[in-house]
Amino acid sequence: MTEPNPSYFVVGTDTDVGKTVASLMLMRFLIKTGHSPYYWKPVQTGCLSPNEAGADASFVLKYCPEVQQTAADATGACFNAPKAPFYAARDEQSSIEVEDLLHKLAYLRKNNTLVVEAAGGLLVPFSRTHMLADMVQLAVERFGIKPILVARAGLGTINHTLLSIEALHHRGVQPAGIVFVNNKEHRTPQAMLQENMEAISTFSNYSVCGCIPHIEDFTCPPEEAITLFEKIAG
């Protein structure tokens, strides 16, 4: 039976691996399959406001006109410095209260199909006492949110992906799926892409669901970038 309000936590092996692009494609997939997804970024660093063009919520919502949200509604906390969340907050004499974010997550989870996008990699400091992976663990245990691990397609991804899977397993969490993202500057040769997928499958027993190719026009992304999420939702 299909879950009425499936919810996902998009996490990454590192910063700038393509979590926001993957979140957008997941939103597009959920819309295509009849859901009304709600996008939420608990913590955004590296911008002054969620309404900035470079903010993740602004980017995702720009290409999901069906979703009736504002960037401010879609963002929990926003800090200017492009740093790990704990240190970006500390620079502004502030702090991130993980339980407050989880309380908000519980509220959103009740009636929404959620796409929650993490900040940075799994082992970045999120607060004085929690890494991001700890918040993911709590979100899985309390609300049944499924983590999707996003990784670069190219060189180095075997190590980063396997270490990230170990970090999740250490907390009793299994990824619902693994997604690669390619980019324009460092497009991965097909042979290396297949080798990376093979290595991850061999040493973790998780298959990579697919690779989101470089997208020139986000108003009309390639179908393969959207349909690869069928392997996770199914």
TrEMBL record:
InterPro entries, per database record: DTB_synth_BioD, P-loop_NTPase
Keywords, ordered alphabetically: ATP-binding, Biotin biosynthesis, Cytoplasm, Ligase, Magnesium, Metal-binding, Nucleotide-binding
Active site: K41
Cellular component, GO, one term: cytosol
Positions of Mg(2+) binding: T20, D56, E117
Subcellular location, record wording: Cytoplasm
GO molecular-function terms, A-Z: ATP binding; dethiobiotin synthase activity; magnesium ion binding
Gene3D superfamilies named in the record: P-loop containing nucleotide triphosphate hydrolases
EC numbers: 6.3.3.3
Keyword match Repeat: no
Pathway field: Cofactor biosynthesis; biotin biosynthesis; biotin from 7,8-diaminononanoate: step 1/2
CDD domains linked: DTBS (cd03109)
Binding site for ATP: 16-21, 56, 117-120, 181-182, 213-215
Database matches in Pfam families: AAA_26 (PF13500)
Cofactors named for this entry: Mg(2+)
Transmembrane portions of the chain: none
Record-listed substrate binding positions: T45
Major place of residence: cytoplasm
Catalytic activity, reaction form: (7R,8S)-7,8-diammoniononanoate + CO2 + ATP = (4R,5S)-dethiobiotin + ADP + phosphate + 3 H(+)
GO terms under biological process: biotin biosynthetic process
Function of the molecule: Catalyzes a mechanistically unusual reaction, the ATP-dependent insertion of CO2 between the N7 and N8 nitrogen atoms of 7,8-diaminopelargonic acid (DAPA, also called 7,8-diammoniononanoate) to form a ureido ring.
Classification via NCBIfam families: bioD
Subunit text: Homodimer.
Family according to the record: Belongs to the dethiobiotin synthetase family.
PANTHER family found in the cross-reference section: DETHIOBIOTIN SYNTHETASE
Name used for this protein in its record: ATP-dependent dethiobiotin synthetase BioD
GN (gene name): bioD
